[in-house]
């Protein structure tokens, strides 16, 4: 049954299996293992980013398409929930309608972009998505009447999902709405992730891999490459939008910086590459390592910068604000030297 | 004996639409300008907007020309091109600020000399940077588009962050040289002096580039390389050397574009290259990847349209470029002037 859940796609490495089990266990029992607001925040972020990164991997790793619009789809889902909650009032129906509408909008937009750019050359897609995503980001920050502009939107979600809803204590941890909210995020993420694993191991997923390896040959065998690429784009956009909805439900706030910025796009790229392109488990590992590093490395870099303050230039290089510099270096190096990422390494060293 | 086939060869002249088809992209610019005239209504604001649109287009063209040639020649798509724009702007502006005496004096000659020096410094630095970038970042990933995109994006991040390290995290404000400040009136329209300079520089560059590409041997090799690289190599030319030259020239042009854009905006940030890249990509796509003429027309279209629309409907201006790109791609999916690849 377990293998069935994973669609027959086993981790194929003992160490990898162990790491994945540890991550799953920690996330499943995060509120009890690591009590505290900050660690719960981190755990929820990891869950959501695993789905987001896995959906991006469907495009980048499995189909071989580079898109820079993934945060746009993520943001569409988030803004869908936010707008629905603002206009329909507090309630579960608002969350569901918002999430579905966001996913629908993302799918339609992905379809339009895909039909325009994938028809000619896959490389157009990278440039066109970059242009469209930046236009959408500008639009969202300019149309402040609808989207709240740079300030974003604050809204209320059903009371059962907020800390004000108390149910008592479990193992010494207060069992409240925040915990329910976390488990909503966790199980939804788990379901979406398993769905993606199912997709990439289906015949459809095999065709995508064939297109990645040699699109000309795939076309010659009789598969409509454009159709498959467009479908993959739409599917990945829809899942990204759902991840965005979860993020919006968890944070109770959306803004351009948290959902649409180009930096998040870079983060996603890094997570996919570091974890390992072309395997869903890479998304799990990449997202976990990255979010942990993001949350705790800042402090470390600040300390390093202080410690070297006597030297010239070095403290500037180690300044916590320059952490993107080191990520960029890491990114370039990992594309050269670990093209298969951590998962690929673990599988090879079996 | 078989009878001769009963068809007689006849010379069929191409119909007017067929002949016009090849020239249609060139015609788009005058059409857009005339349409803009009728939409705006007032001659003076139309003239102002046209000049600023042309100036903006020329600057975008300067940045885009290198990128499109690099792609045409070696099938390399360089997302790091934007970093050269930023670096060029920062180097050029540093030189300009150091030459405060020259830029502050009311003599046009000294002002132009200062800008020239700044441009040369910027081009040298970005050209050298381009050479290093090609060596370290691009060379190992020839032929793999996916890795190229990833690695050049990584390079873009690193260079942008290094700008922060060297020049500090804040944007730098600057003023234009004394004689290029302000505007003069021409037929009742206020035309900024600097924009006129940008148009002149852009036209000179375009003409020079066309001359090099059409009249010299190196231009012949470059054009032939874009059409069919293997054949050119088979004839004994080392295309990789030509390619490095084009890459360096393209990076230097991006630096020049950065200086000019910085002077135009009167503020420079490390992220400006990244922002410009979006316009540059739109221009390269609608022009047809690999085509210098296409990039020129595309850049002018983008510049003019953006200025007209910003005047007529400010809210729509945000998406006007995307709309333009969509329209062009619907008309010609490969871009306006696709380079015919014999592969």
Molecular structure report:
The complex is a heterodimer of chains A (350) and B (343). By secondary structure, chain A is mostly helical. A two-stranded antiparallel ribbon of chain A has the order 1-4. Chain A has a single domain, classed as Orthogonal Bundle (ABC transporter involved in vitamin B12 uptake, BtuC), CATH 1.10.3470. Chain A has helices spanning 2-5, 14-28, 30-33, 37-63, 70-88, 92-117, 122-142, 144-147, 177-200, 203-213, 215-221, 225-251, 256-259, 262-275, 280-307, 314-318, 323-337, 341-348, and strands at 153-154, 166-170, 173-176, 253-254. Helices cover 75% and strands 4% of the residues of chain A. The longest helix of chain B is centred in the first third of the chain and has 32 residues, at 43-74. The chains are: A mainly alpha (350), B mainly alpha (343). Chains A and B meet through helix 7, helix 14 and helix 17 of A and helix 6, helix 11 and helix 13 of B.
Termini separation of chain A (Å)?
A: 25 Å
Unreliable residue runs of chain A: none
Helix content of chain B: over 70%
The tally of strands of chain A reads 4
Structural class of chain B: mainly alpha
Oligomer: heterodimer
The number of helical runs of chain B is 13
What do the pLDDT scores of chain A average to? Answer: 84
What's the order of the H and E elements of chain B?
HHHHHHEEEHHHHEHHH
What's the CATH architecture name of chain A? Answer: Orthogonal Bundle
Tell me, briefly, the overall form of chain B. globular
Q: Assign the CATH class of chain B.
A: Mainly Alpha
Structural features:
heterodimer; A: 350 residues; mainly alpha; ABC transporter involved in vitamin B12 uptake, BtuC; two-stranded antiparallel ribbon; two-stranded antiparallel sheet; 18 helices; 4% strand; globular; B: 343 residues; 13 helices; 3% strand
